[in-house]
Input
Amino acid sequence: MQRTLVIIKPDGVQKNLIGEVIGRLEKRGLRIAALKKIKISKEQAKGFYIVHKDKPFYDSLTDFMSEGPIVVMVVEGKDAILEVRDIMGATNPAEAKEGTIRRDFAENIERNIVHGSDKPESAGFEISYFFSQIEIL
Ligand code: CDP
Ligand code: MG
Output
């Protein structure tokens, strides 16, 4: 079993896609181990995306991530990290495969509906950024 952090980003919540995203994860056999709807500040978004601090898109990305409510969840299952990345599709929706969340719903490379951890070390950091152990069931 592996755990990963998934976020339904402000555009996904705004487009009423919470159920759609969770449904796609559950249909693939993944389990929701923790879940909450929150709104993060610009500073909290900067901390979450600290690995991207030197990228040209960091300022705009962290504005976007703090513009409205998000849903954060811990998703569990066999190869959960890769499974979620596969369900999400490529970062740029124009390059995402058919049937992926980003291909079906994302507006552009920034406003791309969902986040999923990219490797076990990131998942550990990202899960603990939003959840304490007693919230993960
Ligand atoms: O989310 P993912 O792991 O697929 O991509 P990333 O390279 O870790 O980038 C994090 C997020 O930054 C993306 O999901 C986009 O929202 C945003 N981004 C952007 O606005 N412009 C880029 N050229 C690359 C990423
Ligand atoms: Mg990433």
About this structure: The first strand starts at residue 2 and ends at 8. The chain has a mean pLDDT of 98.
